[in-house]
Specification:
By secondary structure, this protein is of the alpha+beta class. Helix content is 42%, strand content 19%. A two-stranded antiparallel ribbon has the order 1-2.
């Protein structure tokens, strides 16, 4: 059972970790996710995508 949970919110992204991980790892993880997403879907692709249309491409990467 997790009793100490950290919610790290950075821009529009959120990660939940146990307190023992600290804050640097979750923030680094969020930065990497944001950078990868921006590189792949920048230039308007994400802004113009319909709901759930990027799930097939981005879902497995987020799960990883």
């Amino acid at each position: 059972m997790l009793t100490n949970i950290i919610f790290s919110i950075h821009e529009a992204y959120c990660v939940v970790t146990v307190e023992s991980i600290g804050r640097q790892v979750p923030i680094s993880c969020l930065e990497r996710i944001k950078d990868d997403f921006t590189k792949k879907y920048g230039g308007g692709k994400a802004a113009n995508a319909t709901a759930n249309s990027l799930n097939k491409e981005s879902g497995p990467k987020l799960k990883e």
